[in-house]
């Protein structure tokens, strides 16, 4: 992406790692935001981009600890090394490595947990520098 370029795309909340196709480099900064396209639901709980406090989190641990269930998250790369919260805010993130921008909602890291997620999220990414 060139500076000031804006890209938009959408992904389903059941995707545990949506690959955006945007390759980032160290020290590049991006403005990232999310918007609900189709109502978000985790099993039987209606939610938003900021997620919710899951009463059984003490037992079933979320992928990103100490963050709400279903919170919109971003990551640089498919692993869990450089993860950052987005939620309903506009977030500026400075990248620390050369990888692809990925997105997911915070849930228990299992196929079963992600398979009951419903809804579509639109992501807007603007390269700042």
User: What percentage of the residues does DSSP assign to strands (E)?
Assistant: over 45%
Could you give the count of β-strands? 9
Number of helices: 1
Name the CATH superfamily assignment: Galactose-binding lectin
Number of domains: 1
What is the name of the CATH class?
A: Mainly Beta
Q: What is the average of the pLDDT values?
A: 95
Q: Whole-Å distance between the termini?
A: 10 Å
Q: Helix/strand-derived class?
A: mainly beta
CATH topology: Jelly Rolls
Helix amount, in percent? under 10%
Please give the largest β-sheet.
5 strands, antiparallel
Rg for CA atoms: 14 Å
Task: Categorize the overall geometry.
Answer: globular
What is the element string, with H for helices and E for strands? EEEEEEEEHE
CATH architecture name:
Sandwich
Low-confidence blocks of residues: none
Description of the structure:
With 129 residues, the protein is mainly beta. It has one domain: Jelly Rolls. 4% of the residues lie in helices and 47% in strands. The chain has one helix and nine strands; from the N terminus they run ββββββββαβ. The strands form two sheets. Strands 1, 3, 4, 7 and 9 form a five-stranded antiparallel β-sheet that branches. Strand 3 (29-42) and strand 4 form a beta hairpin. The longest helix is centred in the C-terminal third of the chain and has 5 residues, at 111-115. It is globular, with a radius of gyration of 14 Å. The mean pLDDT is 95.
């Amino acid at each position: 992406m060139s500076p000031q370029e804006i890209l938009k795309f959408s992904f389903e909340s059941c995707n545990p790692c949506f690959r955006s196709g945007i390759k980032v480099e160290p020290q590049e900064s991006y403005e990232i935001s999310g918007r609900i396209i189709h109502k978000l639901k985790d099993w039987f709980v209606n939610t938003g981009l900021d997620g919710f406090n899951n009463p059984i989190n003490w037992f079933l641990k979320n992928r990103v600890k100490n963050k709400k269930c279903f919170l919109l998250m971003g990551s640089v790369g498919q692993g869990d090394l450089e993860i950052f919260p987005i939620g309903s805010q506009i977030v500026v993130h400075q990248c620390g490595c050369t990888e692809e921008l990925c997105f997911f909602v915070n849930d228990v890291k299992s196929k079963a947990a992600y398979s009951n997620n419903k809804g579509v999220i639109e992501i807007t990414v603007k390269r700042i520098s």
